[in-house]
Amino acid sequence: MPILLPLRLPGPYHYRVAPDLALAPGDIVRVPFGKRAEIGVVWDGDAPPPEGVALKTVGERLPVPSLGVDQRRFVDWVAAYTLTPAGMVLKMVLPVPEALEPARVPPRLAPGEMDDAKLTPARSRVLDEVRKSPGTTSELAERAGVGTGVVRAMLNAGVLRELPPEPESPPSQPDPGHGGPTLSAAQSEAAAALRDAVAKHAYSAILLEGVTGSGKTEVYFEAIAEAIRDRRQALVLLPEIALSAQWLLRFVRRFGVTPVVWHSEIGLGEKRRTWRAVAEGTALVVVGARSALFLPYRKLGLIVVDEEHDSSYKQEEGVLYNARDMAVVRAHHASCPVVLASATPSLETLANVRDGRYRMLHLPERHGGAQLPTIETIDMRATPPERGEWLAPPLRVAIAETLAAGEQTLLFLNRRGYAPLTLCRTCGHRLQCPNCSAWLVEHRSTRAHHCHHCGHTVTLPPACPACGGVHWAACGPGIERVAEEAQRLFPQARVVLAASDTLATPKSAEALIGDILAHRVDIIVGTQVVAKGHHFPALTLVGVIDADLGLAGGDLRAAEKTFQVLSQVAGRAGREQRPGRVLLQTYQPDHPVMRALASGHRDEFLTAETEARALAQMPPFARLAAVILSGPDEAKVERGARALAAKAPHGNGITVLGPAPAPLALLRGRHRRRFLVRAERGQPLQPVLRRWLEDVRVPTQVEVRVDVDPVSFL
User: Quick one: average pLDDT of 111-118?
Assistant: First the structure.
């Protein structure tokens, strides 16, 4: 019988099944593998086992729900599309081995039948506590102020007894009729269309597009309510953990309970409970990061991808996949609708709408009568800041006016730390990461210089290693430097930082959002973690410190991404009755992105960007794949790249560019070379890549990775 193991294996291994063990595809089993036991899944397929091989015997079937056929087909599809061993994809479905075993819950203790007439003071305190309420050994010891040995001795003497284990309670069930806001006519029409799609129990892909603040979340909540009424599961993907805090508050207001949450920051015990609840079908609504897509849903009825354009949906380590695109595939296998929500949809999604593969629902206005903010550019050539400062005079004036009105300001700069570069004033030597082709970023909050790629951290050397000079210069601004300037200019203002390193957990994000909503904050200085999804009623001014930042480099999506992030951050201003204002500091006020933002002519920009992509034969009008070689020995990497180049496929709609050093030619101590493979739309890409890579042997210690549909070109 074929068993797929969650290891770097290309496919299932064959095992013998004992006559008294009935197994079916999807069953989760324990099998011998080498000298150890491994968890695996009975897989589909009827290929005979290899001849002359003594098959090992399946050990046992684990008492957990089987993986459905839609989940198994999804695993196979993702593996084939990403050119990844199927076992590595299965590992994402089974990320918590503890969830497959019986719960190891410490027994709760209660008063026993024995009466210890010679109770010591310590034992008396324990008995007093346990008579109030049962508890585990450690809980009773802590409550009574004694050691755990005292409690165990009382258990052995019969003074205490173990209670039978309590069954794990299922997650709280959301109430679809609990409440919600009054929807506008456009919202009601869109919500009805989504409810109808959920009720059909059939695949469909729907783009829910609307201006920032138009209430897209409340609209797709109605689709979730329909899935709940039908006792089917709904999955909502969010691009950032920091986004979940305010989203959860809105969910509780609508459905009365908190949904099941899945992301890297939750503890092992919660992951175990969540995995089992999803597999058993008792978790009706799951909200999470991209990895939540691979949980073993028992009866999936809806998938929502919020902020579908966001590049955070691309997994850049391990299995390389785009959760937005895989969500569409997952919905297809589950025969359920997928809703892609965004105020700034990706060109790929808009192309699918244009070609009739996706349906679009449009919300043209902000909810509740709020108006879109005015957007103006500040020409930094005409009105530059003072030397060594970063806030131009018009932005300073606007901040002062906003503070005087008792309103809040967001200063946006998509760059963490204090300064992105530190150099020696004497010789110009730059502090660079020894493991990566990157400068070290100064973080004054930690008094250290960090590499944002590998995590390497150093304190500032007392002398330059190149010339011995002792004078260092911090070049350029990060958000810490902008916050320092804002605090100096407006000493009475309450200034906070908001970035991935200051909002590392949902709890820290929730605390910051609470402070902003309670108006305990006047100026927020943040990166892209505050650029989307948040609703702050008193925030009326957004100042973008460096609007040109994302336009540099060779990213084919640079203009599109810049337009998206600036549109999203602009959308934080004026979301209720107070009018909003956005100021973009730029050295390129005539750039198409800046003109489109200031004029509000989004469609003209998208049309021009689409035409440019079509002319260059780039996505969505062609397909791309990156082939990246990496290794600790640069000569071996170069030799492997030359070997691949010698047999690179050409013709039949395929073009191979490279090899060339990657922009990050050294990353985490590994030298890197890249190929870029372009295929005409409709041309099968994976078979070409597979044949090419199978035909070439690269040197040992050189890893070859394939990134189909790359988002990052570093």
Answer: 75
